[in-house]
Each structure stands twice: as C-alpha cells, then as structure tokens.
Amino acid sequence: MPTVQPFSDTSGSEPVRGFLHTPDSPASSGAGLVFTHSAGSNCQAPLLVLLAEAFAGAGFAVLRCDLPFRQERPSGPPLRTAARDQEGLRAAVDVLRRSVQPVRVFLGGHSYGGRMASMLAATEPGFVDALLLLSYPLHPPRQPQQLRTKHFAQLETPALFVSGTRDGFGSIAELESAIALIPARTQLLEVKGAGHELLNKASRETMPWLVAEAFLMFAGVRS
After folding, report:
1. What is the pLDDT of residue 74?
2. How many Å apart are CA 17 and CA 217, to the nearest integer?
3. Which of 71, 100, 127, 155 could pair with 122 in a Cys bridge, judged by C-beta atoms 3.0 to 4.6 Å apart?
4. What pLDDT is recorded for position 223?
C-alpha cells in the first residue's frame, strides 16, 4: 500500500506544507504530481485526498499542499495573493524534485488551485510536463462575461481539464470554447451530474480512479 506522511519544507522562496504520498511501486516513468486546493478549502479536502490516493496507487509520488494564503489563514478566500500562491506552487514542484527525484513532474489543482497552476505554467513553458485542472473556475457564477482566460493563449503546457456537467463556474460548452484558445494539447473530461466540487454520491467511488486513468493516458505515463 502507498504511504502518506506530513510534509514541510522552508528552504525555498515560499514554505511548503502538506502531505506526501509515496507509492510502493513507482511508475516506470518515475512520475511526481504536485496538487493543490480551491479558494475555500485546503489540502485536506476529500477530493484531494481521494485523488492523491488514486495517483499514488498508480505509482505516482504525490505532494498535496496548502497554498501560501491558506498557510497564513485557516479559513477565508485568497486576497490578492495570486503571485505568492504561484510562487508557492513553484517551491512545491522544486522540493518534490529534490525529495523524490521523479523523471517527470506534473502540476494541478482544484478550481483556484488549478488556475494558479495554469498561470504559473503559462509564464514558464516546460516547467512541468503537463497540467491536471479540475473544475477550472472559468468565470464567477452567473457572471459569464468575467472570463479568467487571459493567460490561455500563452499556455504551452499540455492540460487535462476535468469538469462537472453542473458546474456553475462554467458550462461544458463554455469551457470547450475557452480551451480552444490554448495552443498546447488539451483534453476535457466530463463528470456527469457533478457540480463544482466534483464529488457526489454517484462519482465519489469511481471518479478519482477515472481521472487518474485519463491523466495517465493523456500524459503518456501509460499507453
């Protein structure tokens, strides 16, 4: 069985805090994944825990981490901390590389966390091998004119998007249109009947494993 233990590192530009999942049998590619949370949650969110377990079961070393804004405050949304939160993800990727030494490193997150991951990748092509973006917050609910896609045209990192068909932050059709702006290879995985949180009674047991399998195929970890 994969193991999980608390993890912290203060050697980088931002402190890294979270949990490290270590597989029994690492994937042949030596894959590592840094994964983070939404604006209203933390790295203990059930979605992150289930996904980390699924990826560790598939042979990934997974670091699920708290963004800098959450390390400073146990609750509440991020307040003008985007630059620091992206730097926190950079530090987490760097420390995973040093600690586990994977051949390939992937980055992702849920909602706000995924947005921060995609913005970091847009400024640094090649920093990670691919992105896993769950419930990308395309726009605030009921405000479709406020799109969060300015950086999409500069995103050269392959990205797998996962979105529920009842997500108020962007419909499947809206997301498909936005993803077309990205010059890199992309794929959209729909979760039927799921909202922004992705987990429901129908999806809780199978969705994390389906996401892991889809990403392994997308990223070329498994053919």
Report:
1. 94
2. 29
3. 155
4. 47
Give the DSSP H or E segment for 65.
strand 61-66
State how far the Cα of 194 lies from the Cα of 159, in Å rounded to an integer: 20
- Enclosing H/E stretch for 174: helix 172-179
> Residue ranges of the chain with pLDDT lower than 70?
26-29, 223
pLDDT at 205: 80
At 163-178, the pLDDT tens digits run: 999 999 999 999 999 9
Q: Give the 3-state DSSP-derived string for 83-133, with helices as H, strands as E and coil as C.
A: HHHHHHHHHHHHHHHHHHCCCEEEEEEECHHHHHHHHHHHHCCCCCCEEEE
Q: Is 5 helix (H, G, I), strand (E, B) or coil?
A: strand
Tokens of 169: 């932050």
Q: Residue 85's closest CA among 97, 71, 104?
A: 71
Instruction: Kindly report the number of other CB atoms within 10 A of residue 11's CB atom.
Output: 10
* Domains observed in the chain: 3-219 (3.40.50.1820)
Helix 82-100 and helix 112-123, axial crossing angle in degrees, nearest 10: 80
Instruction: Write out the H or E segment, with its range, that includes residue 62.
Output: strand 61-66
